[in-house]
Structure formats: structure tokens, C-alpha cells
Amino acid sequence: MSGFWRERLRADVPASLVVVLVALPLSLGIAVASGAPVIAGLISAVVGGVVAGVLGGSVVQVSGPAAGLTLIVAQTVATFGWRGACAITVAAGLLQLLLGASRVARAALAVSPAVVHGMLAGVGVVIVLSQVHVLLGDAPQASALANLKALPRELMHNHTTAVLIGVLTLAVLALWRYVPALPKVIPAPLAAIVVGTATAVVTGWPVQRVEIPDDILSFEAGPQWPGGPLHAGLAAVGAIAMVASVESLLCAVAVDRMHSGPRVNLDRELCGQGAANMVAGALGGLPVAGVIVRSSTNVRAGARSRLSTVLHGVWILVLVLAAVPVIELIPLPALAALLVYTGVQMVNLTHAQQVHQHRETPVYLLTLLAVVVLGLFEGVLVGMACALLLSVWRLTHATVRAHLDGQGWHVVVEGSVTFLAVPRLSRELGRIPAATVVSVELNADFMDHAAVTALHDWLIGHERGGGTVEVHELHHDWYAGAITGQRPPARKLHPTAWWLPRIHRPAAPAETAPPAEGAPTGAKERLVRGARMFHRHAARRIAPLLADLARTGQQPTQLFLTCSDSRVVPSLITATGPGDLFVVRNVGNLVPRYDDAEAASVGAAVDFALNVLQVRTITVCGHSGCGALAALLRPVTHPAPMPHLGSWLRHARPSLARVESAPPSDADHLTRLCQSNVLQQLEHLGTYPAVRERVADGRLELVGMYFDLATSRVHLLGPDHTFTPVDTPSRV
């Protein structure tokens, strides 16, 4: 056996056994909650593991019966019967297979996460409301509202032994994490089912138990297309295919973030899910989907390939064939308690908080309520409609605020300024008194003709009344372009670092008269103008962040040492903001050795960064065309004496010696010197005892960086002492 397969088996076999411990009780419980034969859940677990594991596009995703499909499967079984539900599952799998072959899998990712999370939360509420009745020893009602209405009576009058089994199972599920060491070996679902089953067996209490038919390998009662209206059956096919596909693809994307192996192929994953559903329906199983609980368990258990997923299906098949008497000891109230616990977890507060942060709580809540009240398919449609309306509202909504400060009136317009925003814009502008100084800040990603006309008409009228108006556009010149007849840009731009000043191409030098005595020079005036722009545009945005930093102090993550060259802007090339970098700049990005007398300035920065700021990274960043190193490489006679520069550049002479002793390369001499200088200065950092000590014990990392001005590309120093460009993620 090769080392490759030996390593795979060593990782995947134990992982598959861990997944079985989670999947087995959940598969049984989901089958019970779906109103299907118990064996159907086990069949789907086997098929999901083997078929979807072999054919799917994710190497670590585990498929099987999913709690998110429980409600729609229960409705399908109640409407069309079990054999009809199996036929619908086969048809849904065929539809998934066709969609995957058509390469439209990524379209499923267009569904708003707020809808998906709301749908899962609604399904969780429905599961809890129905399975609480089973836990109490009674049968669930026909709908979620009926279950909710009957629940007080059940809680008041139903105190059977089934309740004790269910409560005990819930207690184990909730408290298992606090048992030392055991949760890492035995998953909570398995432990809870074992405790509930053992209690029922030892006490001999009369509770309903799992029933598995003797002829589990007989497929005489296979799928049969149900009678009745064709559109009803096709609607069920579409509902199962859509929900199973979206849940599987979103799960695959989420699992991809948990491991470093091969990335998921979404179209292949959809084809694999379709094939698994066709096989599961043909064999009398539940619909199959990718399940986040089993998949994340698989990753955490150390799975390296799809072998773990396939083996988990094989182990479940072995248990079904060899351990039927043991499985039949499991009490239904214990499975109901497991489903109640699972349903509560499906109402994920973290997801709800994320949705709230993106201001999509109405979509989440409406989807949740619609699923509970109307049903799964209807709830998803309501959620998607709400998400669409919210998107349209955001695209057409603009914020307009007018306020007075010490410098005059300020009007801030943000968002998409369309004809729908004209009444609000006119109302705010109408508040401004005549003959006043007004600054209008347009932070607009779009302005249509109606909005431009309204603003321009007001501006003309205000200036005719003796007022002054300045219009500042932060992104595109929508207003200026419209009133001058220029065509506005076809695509909007969204800067990610809004605190940075706008970048202007320097104008060609022109012959101008010397400034009058006492007047500000051009350079000073540019600084003053820049400060005014900062106060007008960025200060109010960045003020809360700076105030927080002023209160809590700086907590940068790294010391960033770079050249004084004005073309190198650290915050720009690293997309960082205030408080992120502790920056040291000097001519040539040089680091004197620790024992050098001129090390005081750089050494002070290193001491402060390591001992006070506790940075974890020190980056030395060089750049192309460095003037200091060019002077070292090609010394010229300058009319003005520069003794300090000559003394300082001696710290770069080891870099020059390194280049001259290195093998020749295709790069020009200056480029090689600029890159070698980064490596040399990192070695100089190693002469500092505090740096050397922290690097040795893993508390500090030294990073080499090189910025190519001509291409605007950042390069990182690799272990082989060569610089490699940082990859740009492709857009998908």
C-alpha cells in the first residue's frame, strides 16, 4: 500500500466512524418526524454517503436526510402517500441532475441568506412544535398552529413515562458538553440516545419504540407516481428539488471554508445530489441533501477525502443489516427529544445577528413566520419576494440630510438618487435660508435626470438670491457630468478605503508668477486644501473610529518599516486604516544592526512595538526604483554636500555586496539591489535580541515585502528568498 493511501486511511476511517455516531440517530429521528418509515432514514443515510460521496463535487461534505426537508417531506407524504413521495423524490433528483448538467448551480447562491436562515429557523420551529407532542407521548397535530394551540393542554395533563425518557434525553443533549473529555469521543446525539434507550430497557417502561420491517431488503413497495392533478405533483417535485439544492450548495460553500483541500465543484455537487435522490427514492428512502452538522463533524474529525463520506454510508449499511434488534430498542420519545433539540439549534441566533447587521431582519422574520403559518414552499416564496422588494427599495433609496455648523450649511446626499428621492431632496433643500453659504456633499452611486434637475434648479435659485453653493462629488461626477453634457460613467465605483484622500494625477508644471510676500506657497495651500477636504468629506466618517482609538489607545498588529519615498503609501498598498500599522519610514527602508550607534531611532521603534504594542509581525517593505539605493549603486557628485545621507547609506552596503556576489539574473541591477536590500534588513533585525527571542519561540514573524511601482503589484518574500506577486482572487 502506498504512503498516500495509508495516510488517507489513517485520517478518513476514524473520521467516518465519528460521522456515523452523529448521523445514525439523526437519520432515525428525521424519518419519524417526516411521517416516513424509519428504515427510509437509514436508506437515505447510506445512499447519501455512498452515491453523493462518490459523485458529488465536495470531498468532505456528508449528505443524508436533512432536518431542513422535514416539513416539506411530511406534507408530501400526507398528500401523496409514501409511494407517491418516493416517486416525487426520484423526479426531484432527475431535475437536480438536469440542472447540474446545465451548469446553473451557482444560480442557487443568488437566494438571499436571510431567506435561507429564515426558512431553516421556521422549519426548526415547526419541528419543535410537532415533536414536543411525541415527547409528551401523544401524536402531533396536522399543522404548526394546531400543535401550538394543543400544547398547553399536553403540558398540563400528559405526565407519562414517555415524558421522563424525553426530558432525560434533552438533559443529556444540553449538558453533555460539560462532561470532561467524553464529548470529544462520543457525540452528544449518540450519548443522549444511548442513555434514553438504556433507561427504557432497564426500567421496562411501556414506550413506543423504533419499528423496522423484517423484509428491509425487499423493494416491492417501490415508488409509484401519485394520482390526482399533475400540477400538484410537479409543484412538490420543484419544492423538494429547490430546497434540497439550495441547502446542499450553501452547505458545500460553508464547508469549503473549513478545510484546505480541493475546492467544491458546485455543478458536480448538484449532479451528485440529484443522482443520490434518484437512488434514494427508488429504494424507498427520504430525499437527500448536504447536511452542515455531519459535514462539519467530518471536517473536525480530520477527514481528508471523499473516502470518509463513502465509508460512513457503508458503516450505516452494516449496522442496519447486523444490529436491527439493537436499533429497535430505541424509544420514540428519545428520538423526539433529539429532534426538539435539533429544531431549537436551527433557530440560530448567530445567523439572526448576522442578518440584523445587514439590515435584513424583516426578510428573516417574514420567512420564518410564513414557513410556520403557511408552509415551507409558500414561506420561501414570501421570503424571496420580501428580499426582492428590500433590494429594490435600497436601490432607489437615498439619504438626504441638511444641517448647520460653524462653517455654514452642509447637505449630505447618499445612496441612489432617483426621482423617488426628489421630494425628500427638495424638502431638505427648502429648509436652507436664502443668501447662505452651502456645501453639498454628493456621496451618490447614481443620479438620474430628475434628481440632477431638482438639485441644479435649487442651486441656480439659491445663487440668484445671494447665496453660495459648492457641490463636492465623492465618487463619480454624476451632477457635474450631467450639467456639462458629459455622459455619466456606465459603472459605479465603490472605494473600499473611504478614509483615504482622492488620488489626483499630478498636473504638468506650469510657469506661474511667484507668490506675493506673505501669501501661502503652493505646497502649503495644497496642504490647507487637503485639510479642508478631510474636514468636509472624511472627518465625520472617521471621527468615531479615531475617538475610539483615542480612548482605548493604539493596538496595531504589526510594525511596518518602509522607505520615505512619497510614492509608497503603506495604508494604500495594504488596505489598512488608522490603528492597524505602526509605521517607521526612513531613506531606503534600512535597519541598522543592533550594535550600531545609529540604531537608536529604529531600535526605539522596535522596542516600543515589541514590548508595549506587543506586535506579532514586523514587515520590511522595499520598492522598485529606490532613489537611495540608486545613489548607492551609481554615486554621483551633487553640488550640495549631503554627509548625513552618505553616512546613512552605509547600512545598505551589505545589500550591495550580496547582489554583487549573487549569480546573475534577468532582473536589472537596481531591481536586484532593492529586493536584496529587503532580505538584508530582515537579517539586521535578527541582530536585535528581543526580535531573535520572539522569532525563536513563535511569537513574532518577520515578513519581506516588495512593491513594484510600475505595475502596482505587491510581492512577498518566500522561503526560497525570492519574491512572488500576491495573487489577485478571481471574480466568480
Characterize the biggest β-sheet: 6 strands, mixed
Low-confidence stretches: 488-517
Which structural class matches the secondary elements?
A: alpha/beta
Return Rg in Å. 34 Å
How would you portray this structure in words?
The protein is of the alpha/beta class. The chain folds into three domains: 3-387, no CATH class; 397-484, 2-Layer Sandwich (Transcription Regulator spoIIAA); 554-634 and 647-725, 3-Layer(aba) Sandwich (Beta-carbonic Anhydrase, Chain A), CATH 3.40.1050. Helices cover 56% and strands 10% of the residues. It is built from 28 helices and twelve strands. The strands form three sheets. It has a six-stranded mixed sheet with strand order 8-7-9-10-11-12. Strands 3-4-5-6 form a four-stranded mixed sheet. Helix 9 (230-256) packs parallel to helix 11 (292-300). Residues 488-517 have low confidence and may be disordered.
Short descriptors:
six-stranded mixed sheet, Beta-carbonic Anhydrase, Chain A, 732 residues, alpha/beta, Transcription Regulator spoIIAA, four-stranded mixed sheet, 3 domains
